[in-house]
Amino acid sequence: MEKKPKMVSMSKRRRTVNIISYITLALISIVWILPFIFLLLKSFDVGNPGVTGYVFPEQWGFDNYIYLFSAETNFLQWYFNTFIIALFVCVIQTAMQFMMSYVLSRFRFKLRKPLMNIMLVLGMFPGFLTMIVLYQILKTFGLTGDNAVPGLILVYCASSGMGYYVSKGFLDTLPKSLDEAALVDGATRAQIFIKVILPLCKPILIYTVLTSFMGPWGDFVFAYTVSLGSQAGMNVAAGLNSWLSAANIGAHFAHFCAGGVIVAIPVMVLFLFLQKYYVEGVTGGAVKG
Amino acid sequence: MARVKITNVKKIYSGNVVAVHDFNLDIADKEFIVFVGPSGCGKSTTLRMVAGLEDISEGTVEIDGEVVNDLQPKDRHISMVFQNYALYPHLTVYENMAFPLRLDKNIRHYELSEEERAADEKKLAELQKDPVKNAKKIAQVEEELEKGKAVKGYTNDQIYEKVTSAAKVLGITQYLTRKPKALSGGQRQRVAIGRAMVKDCKVFLMDEPLSNLDAKLRNQMRAEIILLRKRINTTFIYVTHDQTEAMTLGDRIVCMKDGYIMQVGTPTELFDMPANLFVAQFIGAPMMNTIKTNLYSKGGKYFVKVFGHELEVTGEKGEMLKKRNTPDREINLGVRPEHITFARDKGSNSFPVTIEVNEMMGSEYHLHVVTEDGTKLVVRIPTINLSESEREGMVMGNKINVTFEGKAMHFFDLETERNILVDQENAPEIK
Predict the structure, then answer these.
(1) Which of B136, B168, B172, B282 is the most exposed place for a label (fewest CB within 10 A)?
(2) Is residue B87 part of a domain?
(3) How far is A108 from chain B (nearest CA, A)?
(4) Which domain holds residue A126?
(5) pTM as predicted
(6) What total number of domains does chain A contain?
(7) What CATH number does the domain containing B386 carry?
């Protein structure tokens, strides 16, 4: 007699696969979220300001947060510096990136391809490679140390045109005939960009705003180098880092954790607020569809 | 309202790809011109050069006597309707239609009312007490009295007036507050036409405006464009690949192929006297049949040999051959499917064919048939004159007799494919 092939029912197999993948995912997410939970819990630990062996604090309280906003630290100064830098960079970078993307998406000029290739190649070098040179240049102009804030804005904005890829990809999907219709209707290129293209770019505009805000908000390496330990020029990451030095960590680790939580709040709010625009598509009905 | 003159216009893309060769055309004021041809023939490129959306590589385009080669599209006084509508998705229908009006910042002069005129005159008298000091103001008031009140752009009331009246004409009043997303294809195309209509334009350009619509809607919109044309009464340039649209809409048709103009003429001219085989086969559906044969004269009359029969060339074509004293020669004989008729009796001029494919179109049969010598032909036979048994006979594999008349023939040169009855000295070579 012929042997019946072994049959595993479809639903059974799917269940096994599901169980395995859920377990894997759960493990990964625990590893991922643990530091955040630890940071959050530690920020409420008022018993021991240094590094501790336990996760759940013995004494709970808001003292660490109160300390951040007291006159004893420069936390507010750092926070304000970071905010100013991120705000300026966010506006300038978004504008530059969009103009760049529009030009590369809509205009055809001789150096278009070479320019895109050069930027692609340049983008492959890690930004830190330029750090020493940038530092020297900024120093020449007196934009380091106490004056690090404008210096950092300059550094972050300088290369913003290079991040055009994502928004250009989006602009490429907007039909060119919209531009042409507007041209015939009497709009200038600038009017087309502002009145026709930008309103259609809302989802990708939000994305660009978020990423260009987040970049300088969370940056450490450049800010650390350029501010050179100056309290007036430091951003919040560089400032908080000073609490992690061997001399400070025993007294300030809990403060560091509280600072970390405060830093995360604006970004979280921004995300929650702008998230719905991600989903919305607005191009429907432009052309046949 | 303007004449459009296109002189020696060429479009050369990078890599020496020539999209349009030496395009010459004089479009009269208020004429409806249709560019027609298969895709890639350069018709849209030519239109876009007139619109200013493509650079003109060589030659000139004149609108209303002014060379517009270096003018921006907005300064050419044109309106354009795009194939994919190109409506602004984030604006309502009303704002879509108002868009060109809001951008218009030209100064227009309006007639002064009685009171305004009186006030101006009073002001002028006042100013003239000190003509040296008030020289500038006096000139201003004088200009206003002479030309009327100068207003930059349109006021909101004027825009409202223009948009609503255009919407009324197009029957889209109830959709003015909607976004394009919430409209059907036909409605969107109406909005696109409306947006082009509200502008004061000299030339109205349409780039395949109906090709995104379904067949029924297309027929309906075609009729509406004819009505619209009567209402707007300006110069139209219309691009299409659909020969029916070309035939029904155009005052004149420009038939193009591979960047060359094949023929310019009225729809009747193109249909009755195609300049070459390409035009003959492009205009009319199904395509014109061709039969390679001999044309010869005998006793002052011209004949062609078709499937063993000698058919006399009659009518206008026969006269023309006689007048030109055409020598005997080999030709491609062209006969339109609708000019081949079903022969009930096996008369002297009819010949037997075998039906290969039978397409029942309702009012007529399109029969793909093969003659005894293997030539394939397409025949259109109206059903209305056929008896029940004759209809039953129109099946695959059956033999029927067909014939055609001498006046329905077209003669094309074997090599150049040109119509031997049309003089064409400067005609481009057809590949």
Answers:
(1) B136
(2) yes
(3) 11
(4) 73-279
(5) 0.82
(6) 2
(7) 2.40.50.140
CA of A205 vs chain B CAs: smallest distance (Å): 15
User: Is A146 a residue whose pLDDT tops 90?
Assistant: no
Vertex A252 angle, CA A248 and A257, to 5°: 130
DSSP A17-83: HHHHHHHHHHHHHHHHHHHHHHHHHHHTB-S--S--S-SS-SSB-SHHHHHHTSTTS-HHHHHHHHH
Is the pLDDT score of A3 beyond 80?
Answer: no
d(CA A257, CA A38): 9
CB contact under 8 A, B80 and A191: no
Residue A284 lies in a domain: no
Most B CBs within 10 Å, among A106, A185, A287, to test the B interface: A185
Block means of pLDDT (10 residues each) for chain B, 431 residues, are 90 91 93 94 94 93 93 92 92 95 86 85 85 84 82 90 92 93 91 91 92 88 89 92 93 94 94 93 92 90 88 89 89 93 81 92 92 91 89 88 88 90 71 53
Judged by CB atoms closer than 8 Å, whether chains meet at B80 and A184 is answered as: yes
Pair B261, B25: CB distance under 8 Å: yes
Question: What's the pLDDT score for residue B99?
Answer: 95
What are B200's two structure tokens?
Answer: 């004061």
Q: Does B89 touch chain A (CB under 8 A)?
A: yes
Taking contacts as CB-CB distances below 8 angstroms, the residues of chain B near A191 are 103
The answer to whether residue B256 is domain-embedded is: yes
Same domain, A36 and A170: no
Q: Is beta strand B340-343 parallel, antiparallel or unpaired with respect to B329-335?
A: unpaired
For B53, which of A180, A196, A288 is closest by C-beta distance? A180
Same domain, A77 and A31: no
* Distance (Å) from the alpha carbon of B145 to chain A's nearest alpha carbon: 30
In this complex, the residue of B86, B103, B180 whose CB is nearest that of residue A186 is: B103
Same domain, A232 and A161: yes
